[in-house]
Specification:
80 residues; alpha+beta; 2 helices; zinc
Length: 80
């Protein structure tokens, strides 16, 4: 399950850019040929974001073309 590694990398990239500020949302673009199981990615997301500034951050996935896998944006702010 490479989705665990992908989740860890997403958290690392977002933390590098957001610092210690809380993150409320991360938006990904994933294409059908990217070989990513979105349900597995969502499951792993919940695990790897615990005890981090991304704890509780919503993972939003939008459809993209071909083999696209891209962090489109993230939102800073208070997490409910």
């Amino acid at each position: 399950m490479h989705e665990l590694g992908l989740s860890r990398n997403i958290v690392s990239i977002v933390r590098e850019n957001a610092g210690d500020q809380p993150v409320s949302r991360v938006k990904l673009a994933i294409g059908p040929l990217a070989c990513v199981e979105t349900k597995a990615l969502e499951f792993c997301w919940e695990i790897v974001t615990q005890d981090s500034p991304l704890n509780g951050a919503k993972l939003e996935i939008v459809e993209a073309e071909a083999d696209t896998f891209l962090i489109k944006e993230f939102e800073l702010g208070e997490v409910a």
